[in-house]
Amino acid sequence: MTHTIDATDKVLGRLASQVAALLNAKDSVDFVKHRVADVSVKVINASKIKVSGNKMNVSVHKSYSGFPGGLKEMPLKYVVEKKGYSELIKHAVYGMLPKNKLQDIRMKNLVIEE
Predict the structure, then answer these.
(1) Are 20 and 89 in contact (CB under 8 A)?
(2) Is 114 helix (H, G, I), strand (E, B) or coil?
(3) Residues 92, 12: contact at Cβ < 8 Å?
(4) Which residues of the chain have pLDDT under 50?
(5) What pLDDT is stored for residue 30 in this prediction?
(6) Which DSSP state fits 98?
(7) What pLDDT is recorded for position 38?
């Protein structure tokens, strides 16, 4: 089952929670806890999302390489310039999914178009 979400004028956090709920597929009839459902989510117009307040300058996007001293912190403004709005949505949805072996598999079912 494919869900298409238009991100125009939606707030980043609320969009991410809606996408995470669809990827979990708990509303599905054939939901099983230990298996990934056959659900894919497509987000269109990702570059038209709203980031409320001054978060583009103040909020920090963190990535860690796994090595000592490998923590990189960048304001959201620079992440958007470098990787686009799709990276913000991916990072937000990834944080809202359950932390288990199925998290990466569910993320592969997410398609984001700028």
Answers:
(1) no
(2) coil
(3) yes
(4) none
(5) 85
(6) -
(7) 92
Q: Which of 47, 49, 48, 29 is nearest to 39 (CA)?
A: 29
Domain covering 2-50+85-112 assigned CATH 3.20.20.150 in the classification: no
How high is the pLDDT of residue 53?
85
Residue type, 95: G
Question: Residue 107's CB: how many other CB atoms inside 10 A?
Answer: 13
The pLDDT, as a whole number, for residue 23 is 95
Q: At what angle do helices 85-96 and 12-24 cross, to 10 degrees?
A: 50
Res 94: pLDDT? 96
Domain ranges across the chain:
2-50+85-112
Give dist(CA 99, CA 94) in Å, integer: 9
